[in-house]
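User: quick one
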Amino acid sequence: MPMDHSARTKEMIGNVDRALAGYLERGGHEKLIRAMRHYPEAGGKRMRPTMAILVAEAVGGRGKEALPFGCALELIHNFTLVHDDVIDKDPVRRGRPAVHIAFDEPTAIIAGDALFAIAFDVLATVEVDGERLRRLLRSVSNTVFLVAEGQQMDVDNEDRPTVAREEYLDMVEKKTAVLFACAAEGGAIIGGGTEEQVRAMREYARLLGIGFQIWDDVLGLKGDAKRVGKPVGSDIRNGKRTLIVVDALERLEGDGRRHILTDALGNADATDEQVRAAVRLLEDIGSIERARQFALDYARRAKELLSCLRPSEEREMLREMVDYAVGREL
Amino acid sequence: MPMDHSARTKEMIGNVDRALAGYLERGGHEKLIRAMRHYPEAGGKRMRPTMAILVAEAVGGRGKEALPFGCALELIHNFTLVHDDVIDKDPVRRGRPAVHIAFDEPTAIIAGDALFAIAFDVLATVEVDGERLRRLLRSVSNTVFLVAEGQQMDVDNEDRPTVAREEYLDMVEKKTAVLFACAAEGGAIIGGGTEEQVRAMREYARLLGIGFQIWDDVLGLKGDAKRVGKPVGSDIRNGKRTLIVVDALERLEGDGRRHILTDALGNADATDEQVRAAVRLLEDIGSIERARQFALDYARRAKELLSCLRPSEEREMLREMVDYAVGREL
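Assistant: Done. Structure below.
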């Protein structure tokens, strides 16, 4: 009978929340601090810090030592969300007004920069020797550079009629998966894992991250109203080149129904009926199901990599994290 | 007879330019890389890296070892310029279109973030022991947080009718002086200076930085057409609360001539004649001269702090750097 880890998960999230609040409770410009705290204090699943902590323990280290590192990545995650929302002009995040709406665009740009700065200040407090600190610093800074590349690819893709499958996967890897990979890699380094474990944990999280994003695309079309703040089908109206859309555009080449998708895709004025028709078409031709299977395949491969760890409660929780990332409710 | 250090300065700037080009010559998203290189490759005086290198040598270390650190700060300086120009909607920088004009706003926001990320990657290559690396990391990340605060104060000040003298100086310290202070402090740490030297060099650069900015405000009103890209008096039209304006608004309280300043201040449609009249008034009541003297006083105090260094060519060059920062041509 599988153990119930929900109490443990809740405790870990509570620790992360408290640590984050502490890092963001600093003196200084009051409005800027409020803008910085706007997303982090709105909650979130804290997947990146939790992953770092669990991996550190799973390789035989102390999870507590990975907490500041995990928090640094959570701050970076939030910094990218603040800037993403400015760039995409998204007015809502986690059911609250986006930072650039609750404050203004200049403040949102500056608050993102300030979160980024504090992340490195937190990183400097990780209690490891100099060489491991240097390694973590390089890993995190390179990761943020890749995230920036992914965000740029995402911006550029919006203006392109077609996007190849490989380009989509490259974008998702950079925009989403590398930060997970950095979390697991860093957790393994801090926990004193072997080089093989460091590599395997990085790959585990990379696969999980790609699956997570594709699953998110599926939820964007099939999820229910519980997913507050993002109406079903908004990706269609926004013209997002998700894997589902990329797949459908390929398959509908020369198909008389193609216009049902293209009428709604990237059309901010598309009616609800047009969007529903487009989603039905994506379903009928199997694009949604293929994306689901694709994500599940990534999840399966991620779990296989956990075999480099000794059996433990933490390993079990890392397995459950995959099931959450790829498989959470439709 | 004072030695001519121009050849040495030129060589140092050349080394910095080459190192920066190397750091920015990386594979990746071609357009993003071009946007990142837009400001750094447009040149600049490289004051922050030069200062770090000179201080490292002046305390008895090797300047070469401070080069990556100085370049990291130069990348950070350029990242803040990219975001500042987006925020202030400034279309021109160093005589070229700003990044958000040459590309677009989303690309400018992302390119700034990417420059910031690479700065920390470069910082990770500084060849010092773990504890000094940690100290540099904390200094740089805290500095960027303060720069963000200064930028936020600058943004907020635009909407306020009056700004106190202390608030202006606090803003200038954060927006401009702390990055210089970080450069000199880091150079002293890398060069193996004593704790007294580290503190004195930090204070030297802080004073220089404040003087530099006030001198810049003076040049903005009294400089000639050589200062490409920023027409004389644009600070008046933009409503900038410089020390000169803060001083004048205080002194003109109840003075019948006050409207000559307020008619032009923050009035984008002010005629050239209105702006010239405002500048003449600032001159007549002594506000410009007082700011000049104020900056020169900071310069004097900065130079005094150099007495903690043994006499050397580098100390002489640090003295000349003050004269350049506060005293460059009107």
